[in-house]
Amino acid sequence: MPKMTFVENDGTEKEVDAPLGLSVLEIAQRNDIDIEGACEGSLACATCHVVIDPSWYKKLEEVSEDEEDMLDLAFNLTETSRLGCQLIMSDELDGLKVKLPEAL
Fold first, then answer.
1. What does the pLDDT look like over 79-102, one tens digit per residue?
2. If you ran DSSP here, which 8-state letter would residue 88 be given?
3. Taking every annotated instance into account, which residue ranges of this chain make up the domain 2Fe-2S ferredoxin-type (predicted)?
């Protein structure tokens, strides 16, 4: 099974199983990672904002216009910010590393 790593704000890393076909948001929620996902993955908020490790960013599908619009609402946006609900786990993403954005 693919794995992915979440990096908490304090630098703690948590490697988890990442079942194929689930979003990063769903994987986080299954593993008690502190990501809200208020709209439950319907691309209507930015509460599942994550920062992709730069070594992984170019391996992801391109950001859609709708996702870009929602990312504009996210706090602490970076060049490698994405919405966890839009990142679907595949074999190619085995080992993906994402950081939770800094809280305000």
1. 999 999 999 999 999 999 999 998
2. B
3. 2-104
Number of other CB atoms surrounding residue 44 within 10 Å: 12
pTM of the model: 0.94
Residue 34 to residue 15: CA distance in whole angstroms: 14
Residue with token string 């304090």 = 10
Q: What is the mean pLDDT of residues 30-59?
A: 94
- Across residues 59-76, what is the average pLDDT? 94
Spatial CA neighbour of 49 closest among 39, 16, 19: 39
**β-pair type (13-17, 49-52):** unpaired
The alpha carbon of residue 90 and the mean position of all alpha carbons in its chain are separated, in whole angstroms, by: 14
